[in-house]
Structure formats: C-alpha cells, structure tokens
Amino acid sequence: MSIKRWLLRHMPHPGVRLASSPLLRPLAPYLGHAALWSLQRRKVALAVAVGLFSGLMPGPTQMLTAALLALLFRINLPVALACTLYTNPLTYLPLYYLAFELGKLLLGMNGELVMPPFPVFDGEHLWQWQHAVMEWTLHMGWPLLVGVPALGLTFGLAGYVIVMLLWQCVVLRQWRRRKEVRGSD
C-alpha cells in the first residue's frame, strides 16, 4: 500500500469528523478548506517545514503554532501537527543546547558565555523548580533567543528539501516502472 493511500485512509475528513466534534465545530469554517487536507507535494513539504519549525516553540505552544501557520499558509494541517512531535521531554534539552550553541555562533559569542547546568527536580517542589527553569532560560538570553528560531528555520528548510527530493524520487521510480511495464507488453 502506498503512503499516500495510507494517509488518505487515516486522515480525518473535514466535513464528517470535524463537524461531529463539539470542540472543533466552531472552527469548521476554517478547517473545512480543502488545502488543509491536500496531499500535494508542495503542501506536504511546506507542512513538514512548518511542523519542524513549530516543534521548537516552547511547551504547549508547538501544535498551536503549527496549526495557526498551517491555516495561514493553507497547507496540510495533520502533517504540520504530526511533525511537531519530534520534540519531547527527552529531546528538549539537547535541542535547546544545540540552539544555544547556534545562537552563540551567530552572535559571535564563542567563548564568552557558558550554559549553566539545568536545574534538577527533586520531586517535591514543582513551583520552585519551574521558577529555576525560567531563571535558567533567562540566563541564557540572546543566544537562545536567536538560536531557537534559527535552528527551527534550519530544520524546516531541511525538512522541505528532503520531502521534495524524496517525493521526486518516488514519482520517478513509479514513472520508470510504468514505462517498463508498457515496454514489456
């Protein structure tokens, strides 16, 4: 079974499933646009780029950012939302460290600033730990502020190029197979 057929079978249909959901019913006029569910190469590649970019947004804003950008650019909504899932509690620190280092590089601050150790959660004092995490984030300042969007744009561009190239390879392979089948008849 092809990926496109699998996606078509498992993707929600905007007219049926969205109208039946009480939470999404008010958004039905916006979510009913055909482009949000399209599996065209450019729309899917842009959705991957938006999802990868949005995945680096802080905490619970990732899917909201991806959804708003998908609505704005009229690209595949489910793909954009799914592509934010590469970030999770295990990947956040390495990604933000990479963003911090990229920000330092872009700002020309190679040896001037050292990333402080991440606050350890003791299991009891959640509020104090959240405050310490916020202080840790603010201490990193400009390198993180510059590095996160720069890394997100890099991931988005790489995702777009990879999807476009892979899609082209699949199309060429299918075209060659059809040509071989016709040639053998």
From TrEMBL:
DUF2062 domain mapped to chain residues: 24-176
Cited InterPro entries: DUF2062
UniProt-listed Pfam families: DUF2062
Transmembrane feature ranges: 44-72, 144-172
Swiss-Prot/TrEMBL keywords: Membrane, Transmembrane, Transmembrane helix
PANTHER family in UniProt: SLL0298 PROTEIN
Record-given protein name: DUF2062 domain-containing protein
Native source organism of the sequence: Vogesella fluminis
